[in-house]
Structure prediction request, 374 residues.
Amino acid sequence: MKKYTLYATMGAGFESVVAKELQSLGYQTRTENGRVFFEGDQSDIVKTNLWLRTADRIKILLIEFKATSFEELYDQVYDYSWATLLPVDAQFPVKGRSVRSKLHSEPDVQSITKKAIVDKMIDQYHRRGFLPETGSYYPLDVHIYKDVVRLSLDTTGDSLFKRGYRVEHGGAPLKENFAAGLLRLTPYDGSHPIIDPMTGSGTLAIEAALIAKNIAPGSWRKFAFDNFDWFDQEAHYLALEEAKTKVKILEAPIWASDIDQSILEVAKLNAHNAGVLQDIRFKQVAVKDFATDLENGIIIANPPYGKRLKDKESANKLYEEMGNIFRPMTSFNQYYLTAAPEFEKYFGRKATKKRKLFNGNLRVDFYQYWVNKR
Prediction:
C-alpha cells in the first residue's frame, strides 16, 4: 500500500504531547512548531484520526518546494499529477497561509494555487472551460514559511476535538482535545482516582474516562477520508471493530462535581453520549463543601477566570476556598488551569511547576502541584 508523509497539527504547546501519543502508537516522529511528522499508509491515516486524543488534524504532505514568485508557485503546483488525487467532480477548497515569505498575499497564494490545480485537471481530464465541483470534498491547504511551500490534503475534516459526544455546551467548555492534552500533562493513566471539582459540561471527566477505559476518541464520527474515492472504505470499519476489542474496565474512581445542578445535567448527557455515564460519579456540591475519602490520585480543574472586576473578586474568593479545601489533600497531585495571574497568591501555595498554554487565543497557565516524594 502506498506510503505517505503525514503530519498531525495541534495547539501551541502540545507538540511534545502529540509526539508521545504518536510514538505510543508505534510511529517515528519529527517535530516542528505546530506539526509532528510521521510516515504511514491508509490504515495509519485511519488509526491516527481514530486514536489521537490531543491533535487537531491529520494531513498528507503532497508536495514541498521553494517559490519566491507567483510563476514558480503556479508551475510547481501545476507539475503535480492532480488527477491521481482528485476526481473530475471533486470539491477542493484551498486554504492558504504565508509567514515571513516573499509571496505574502494569502488571497493571491490561494487563488494561484487553485488556478494551477484547475488548469492541470482540465488538461488531465480533457475538459473544456470548467470543473463541476459537485462531488466529494477534498480540503487542500497551502502553507508558505520562509519561501518554502507545502501543499497538503486534510484527511480529518472537522477538527479532531469534535468527538461527537458533546451535544450541549454549558458556558465556555474546554475543547475535547485540549482537555485530553491537559490530562496527558499529568501522570493519569486510569490506575488512580481522579477528581474534577468544577466539572462544568464534564469534558475533563469524560476524557479521563475515555483514557482510563482505552476508548478511541474518534469512535463516534466520520472523517474527510471517508469520502475520498481512492480510499479503502473498509479500513475505517475494520479499525472501529478492532478498537471495540481494546476497551478496558474502569480501574479507579472518577469524580465530577459542580455547584450548578443544571450544568451537571448537561455533563451527564455528554457522558451518556460518550458511553461513560456509569463510570463517572457526578455530584452537586460547592467547592467549600467538598469532601472525599479517596486518596493517592489526581485533582484537575478549570476554575472560572473572572474577566470582569466583579467576577474577578468572586473568582479570587473561589481560589481561596480551593486552597482551604484542596491544599490539605496532600496525597493528590493537583492541576489547575486559569488565566488568573494571582492564582497562587489566593490558593495559598506556589505551584511546583507552571506551564504556559493557549486556550484558543487566551493565554492561560497550568498550575501543577506535585505530591512531595519522600
Remarks:
- The CA atoms of residues 187 and 298 lie 8 Å apart.
- The mean pLDDT is 95.
